[in-house]
From TrEMBL:
This enzyme's EC code(s): 2.5.1.72
UniProt KW keywords: 4Fe-4S, Cytoplasm, Iron, Iron-sulfur, Metal-binding, Pyridine nucleotide biosynthesis, Transferase
Source organism of this protein record: Terrihalobacillus insolitus
Manner of cofactor binding, per the entry note: Binds 1 [4Fe-4S] cluster per subunit.
HAMAP family: NadA_type3 (MF_00569)
Pfam families cross-referenced by the UniProt entry: NadA (PF02445)
GO molecular function: 4 iron, 4 sulfur cluster binding; metal ion binding; quinolinate synthetase A activity
GO biological process: 'de novo' NAD+ biosynthetic process from L-aspartate
Protein name: Quinolinate synthase
Superkingdom, taxonomy of origin: Bacteria
Amino acid sequence: SNHELEQFVQHTKYKLGEKLFIPGHHYQKDEVIQFADARGDSLRLAQLCEENQNAEYIVFCGVHFMAETADILTNDAQKVFLPDMRAGCSMADMADIGQTEIAWKKLSDIFDDTILPLTYVNSTAAIKSFVGQHNGATVTSGNAEKMVTWAFEQKERILFLPDQHLGRNTAYKLGIPLDQMAVWDPNLEQLIFNGPLEKVKVILWKGHCSVHENFTVQNVEQIRKQHPDMKIIVHPECRREVVALADDAGSTKHIIDVITNAEKGSAWAIGTEMNLVKRLIKENTEKHIISLNPNMCPCLTMNRIDLPHLAWCLESIMETGTHNQITVPDTEATYAKKALDRMLELV
Ligand code: 13P
Ligand code: SF4
């Protein structure tokens, strides 16, 4: 039963003590997040893994790319585990390294040496390594503006992987007009742009988050009609049109801060993953909070980490010292770390 599993996890945590560290992303289920030693957005979790150099076993409650990042940032004596190997990220899977190499070659033929690659941390270690090798950096939703500004101090143009929406929303916020943004379609192996190529400042990889694309202009219009006093806050993985119509947009941490500090009695529609929205509803009973899309939007891969998988992972670690270990090959890790360090030094 759930109760027995909970007791087992608690007991194992107690037994392993300081040797065990469980980071949990804000999108994790309550049944899992209750056991997290630290909660955070992608940026915070990356920083915590870097700081926590003592934990021998890191059981990552999040998705695959986050566990890879933890492995890259920790030392060789530390092992990182993902309770369910099927916990991937559909957005990260939209940029594969072969496609990225083809894109880079074709874009370099067009734009010579004027492009700097940036990748959202929601990408594979191979992509981070590619970006690190080409003097670029990673970004998170919490520091994207700072990182894009930095990139334009290095080069005339940027290639932003793999989320076109975070890339477009960030560049737009920094004052870059939409008609200076092109899209790279990895399937067509083609740049999509209407106008003279020298105008291109930002090249957006054609990837997206299948969870955040579920928040639509129609959802916004519906809220404006039904609840004229309600404020709308969304994650910048949402489409440009949705972010434009919302009252505010920001990382999961930003959303949590805004809602937590909002006035009693205020009303909010939130455009982000279901588990976080549900938690905010529960923790802010004196505010009126709903999901921007009435069909709550879960991240199915985040949800693969559940209490049974966490318990199973801990049980195996106790018995054998390992379970679903995530190991990034050394050469890849070296360059990926360069991309991550460029970000972590700046923020
Ligand atoms: P942040 O945690 O950076 O806000 O990103 C949200 C997300 O989609 C994580 O996969
Ligand atoms: Fe990936 Fe979107 Fe899920 Fe985040 S919410 S892990 S970006 S699919």
